[in-house]
Q: What sequence folds into this?
């Protein structure tokens, strides 16, 4: 442990202010001190990234793929020390942290594979028609090129997979953008280990100093300085609506507005259709109790609203759900602030008009712990009260009972933008409620059938984002290979000499990528 | 001429305020009155669009392609009346308007072809792996789906191709989004003819009432009401930096921020490299005088900065350019305001420190006319004065003389974001200045070699946009087939029954589109 800020290949602790790593399970200080970044250190990291960009943006896809794989190897090489640090800083169990490490390495390798396959750049070629009348048509070729240096805010709830070397960093580095990480104060030790791993990988791969930096500080100054910095070209964030919108507003009020992709969570409504809930209510209750409590409910995709039509089937589901919840353990949350907010937001929700608690865990609540609970409210009260759409981050959900199909449609139309909307139904249900399902699509980034929203597969087809307030721009995703598109922009080259074109756009298709040539898809050379 | 607002299939003139069509060449009123939209009329158009969206977003690509082609046919069917209206409202000559009509129809057909080819939706399928450990992998499928209703602001400088049925409208309708047009007060008659044509096409194609509306009003209230309206999901704009930023700020300050694609023009620097300017200076001067004055300089891609290294070759080029410019005609601009701004901005530019006028047209200036002119300034004075990067909309350019290669690099690094940067050079020049060229790429959406920036080909590989302030989001284009991506967002479907999937994502690839299936590109069925 060195406790310093990482500024490219160098470590720096110019400042006098420090932070410590806390174990939320014991509320005790465990490691430190970690030096807080000074203005000069921020400036240096930003300047190094700018210089690094000129080299890094012109690296080959193979060089960047090797870099991402080297990061994965270095992370694995950290062994038990990383697992212990992440566990102790997040109160998440070993199995989860080991799994998350695998996911983190998997993400890095996914982008390495994407770069090697190469077609993601959307190479498009329109060849010249010098004889065209009334004007000759020039040769134009276009592909995605890196945006510039990216500031990544790390998430509290994934100390590895959405943090220092998480999906945002992996996709920005894959795109050819240097990254400056704002370390999470809850995982300072984990951040140090992973930052050092990235730096070692960059050195081994012969990449420029400044391609990666990681800075820490308490308070809001570091984050706002990074977002407002004129050299910053994009920002990635995963966290709360309040946090995301604060960064978004800073970014768009700059002299040069820049894109912020903020994934701000949602309440992920689950709609239980009549035949399904009638025939499998008890099993659904068991499945959903598990989903609600998974990872102490600390997922952006935690199912916060369970929607169904009132009647005996729903009453039985509610009873079964309450029974399941009452048997769930309480567990330590990610940090003191998150635990305090959970209690506050859950209490506020339970005090809303018409909300009744259905059941709660009987387990004793540990230090910084969350006690799972479920509540119930009528659709009428839900529709009248916008507060009930606010996310309660943690193991808490509300059942909404609708009088009939048309009130169910009203509830769907009333929903804010979501990361996910889930339909639990039989084939008959899906046929009967097709209009409801098609309507729900307008409100979400992902529609799930007969599954749970927790669990976000990292793959090409994933959409993790959605209409506001789930994310600041529904046109992008923060999980899966398309996350790279947040940090790329198309550049067109008109009548360019071959040697001045990126390899992906030359006549010879040396990477064998799929290209659109004169509106035809082909992987051949010209 | 009916002079009414178009609200879906209906015409409406509830209000008492009216506007008139003006002929800028004579400053005379030519047609009217045109009814200004009232709050109730705005509300009705927005509500109709919302209802229409539920049908329109689920039309087949073929239905939308037929609609776009029907619009093109209806526009052609307007014949001489449309050509005369557009000419008299814009002071642009017949050849230009007829050409622009062709371009407008070409754009509509480009999107029709794109829809029929179908691969633009980025269909991505990851099949299930039920046996995967530790967790089964679900079936996930993703494609681009329409965003919702789009507000289109029409541009002054293209009464057809960037207006009522221009590229923004065409791409939004192609994506499956209803469109509400804010008519340009300079082309009220043209707008009426084209709006009626679109409405006839929608009816003929059996599309829902409200898929297209067009509203007119003086002042800022109509535009701001449309942008701030909660039903609006995206905005497209082509025009000035001031206008674009005003809309952008409104859109991001909404409770639900929405994307605004504003293409706000730029100064489109042209860099003349030494061997080229030394050997072909006179020809370059001729070519560029033509580009500067094309369309009375009223193009977003007008070359406003001509950059070269000082010396005899540049002096000779400047002399030749001044001579060419002095022989150019003056011509009427698009409207009184644009003509007044040209005079004001040109005078302001000529009064900046170190700026000397090189030459100006000797022709008499007509009513609302612009007199072409060129000036010269040293790179040192240019670098010291940010005002010299402001666009002067019209036939005016500044030559910037650099002391040496390194000052040329300084000028490139100093440039704001641009739609285009052009390099005029020999092969030797390009080899010698490779670093300059690679640096310039960071500042622009399009790099042009040995051409003029005026002339924006409508094709798949076009990028018309660029780093701020050329556009609000460099990741999108407003010209070419990718313009459709501004109005689409990815939606993922997890474990969806086949019948609830859009046709593009079903096992049977009935449209024969290119899809990414388990990370392989294929146009086969599953």
A:
């Amino acid at each position: 442990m060195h406790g310093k800020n990482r500024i490219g290949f160098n470590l720096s602790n110019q400042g006098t202010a420090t932070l410590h790593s806390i174990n939320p399970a014991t509320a005790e200080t465990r490691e430190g001190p970690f030096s807080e970044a000074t203005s000069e250190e921020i400036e240096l990291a930003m300047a190094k990234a700018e210089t690094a960009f000129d080299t890094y943006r012109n690296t080959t896809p193979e060089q960047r793929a090797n870099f991402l794989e080297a990061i994965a190897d270095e992370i694995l090489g950290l062994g038990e020390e990383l697992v212990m640090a992440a566990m102790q800083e997040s109160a998440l169990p070993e199995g989860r942290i080991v799994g998350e490490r695998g996911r983190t390495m998997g993400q890095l390798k996914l982008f390495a594979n994407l770069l090697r396959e190469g077609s993601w750049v959307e190479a498009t070629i329109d060849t010249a028609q010098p004889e065209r009348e009334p004007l000759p048509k020039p040769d134009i070729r276009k592909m995605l090129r890196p945006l510039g240096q990216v500031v990544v805010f790390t998430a509290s709830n994934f100390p590895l997979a959405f943090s220092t070397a998480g999906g945002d960093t992996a996709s920005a580095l894959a795109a050819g953008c240097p990254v400056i990480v704002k370390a999470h104060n809850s995982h300072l030790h984990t951040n140090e280990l992973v930052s050092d791993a990235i730096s070692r990988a960059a050195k081994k791969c012969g990449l420029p100093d400044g391609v990666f930096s990681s800075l820490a500080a308490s308070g809001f100054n570091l984050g706002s300085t990074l977002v407002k910095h004129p050299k910053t070209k994009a920002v990635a964030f995963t966290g709360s609506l309040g946090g995301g919108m604060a960064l978004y507003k800073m970014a768009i009020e700059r002299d040069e507005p820049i894109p912020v992709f903020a994934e701000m969570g949602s309440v992920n409504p689950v709609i239980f259709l009549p035949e399904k809930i009638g025939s499998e209510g008890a099993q659904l209750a068991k499945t959903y109790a598990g989903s609600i409590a998974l990872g102490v409910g600390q997922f952006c995709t935690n199912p916060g609203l369970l929607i169904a039509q009132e009647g005996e089937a729903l009453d039985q589901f509610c009873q079964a759900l309450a029974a399941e919840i009452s048997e769930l353990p309480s567990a330590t949350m990610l940090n003191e602030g998150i635990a305090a907010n959970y209690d506050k937001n859950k209490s506020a929700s339970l005090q809303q008009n018409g909300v009744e608690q259905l059941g709660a865990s009987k387990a004793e609540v540990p230090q910084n712990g969350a006690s799972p609970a479920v509540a119930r409210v009528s659709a009428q009260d839900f529709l009248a009260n916008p507060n009930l759409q606010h996310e309660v981050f943690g193991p808490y959900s509300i059942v909404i009972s609708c009088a009939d199909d048309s009130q169910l449609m009203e509830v769907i139309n009333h929903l804010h933008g979501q990361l996910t909307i889930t339909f639990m139904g039989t084939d008959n249900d899906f046929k009967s409620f097709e209009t409801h399902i098609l309507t729900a699509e307008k409100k979400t980034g992902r529609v799930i059938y007969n599954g749970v929203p927790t669990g976000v597969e990292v793959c090409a087809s994933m959409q993790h984002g959605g209409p506001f307030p789930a994310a600041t721009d529904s046109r992008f995703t923060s999980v899966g290979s398309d996350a790279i598109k947040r940090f790329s922009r198309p550049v067109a080259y008109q009548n360019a000499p071959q040697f001045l074109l990126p390899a992906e756009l030359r006549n010879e298709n040396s990477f064998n990528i799929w290209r659109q040539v004169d509106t035809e898809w082909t992987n051949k050379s010209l």
User: Anything to note?
Assistant: Residues 326 and 362 of chain A are 5 Å apart (CA to CA). The first strand of chain A starts at residue 5 and ends at 7. Chain A touches chain B through 78 residues (CB under 8 Å). The mean pLDDT of chain A is 97.
